[in-house]
């Protein structure tokens, strides 16, 4: 097994945790279910969610493709570690809401 495989699956695990944290924060804030929203905000939210998923998955997918620690870190530094910011921003905001 290459180190990049572990980094990729650790990234997927972190993505799932952030998604659950955001859902828990929305439930704690008693936000209405998204299915009851008007069409335009619901569509915008869906597009944003899909963009977040694909951008974060692409970031962590680089680790799977590069396989080694040093090659993966070189790729992540080249894109300024944006995947970690994509995890931190919604995850951090949701964690603050739950405090």
How does this model look, in words?
- The chain has 99 residues and is mainly alpha-helical.
- It is 82% helix and 0% strand.
- It is built from four helices and no strands.
- α1 runs antiparallel to α2.
- The termini are far apart.
- The mean pLDDT is 88.
Summarize the structure.
82% of the residues lie in helices and 0% in strands. It has four helices and no strands.
Features:
4 helices; single chain; 99 residues; mainly alpha
SSE-based structural type: mainly alpha
Low-confidence stretches: none
Rg, nearest Å: 16 Å
- Which of globular, elongated, flat, extended, rod-shaped describes the shape? elongated
Chain oligomer state: single chain
The helix fraction, in percent, is: over 70%
Topology record:
Elements: H1 3-28, H2 39-66, H3 69-78, H4 82-98
Helix pairs in contact: 1-2, 1-4, 2-3, 2-4
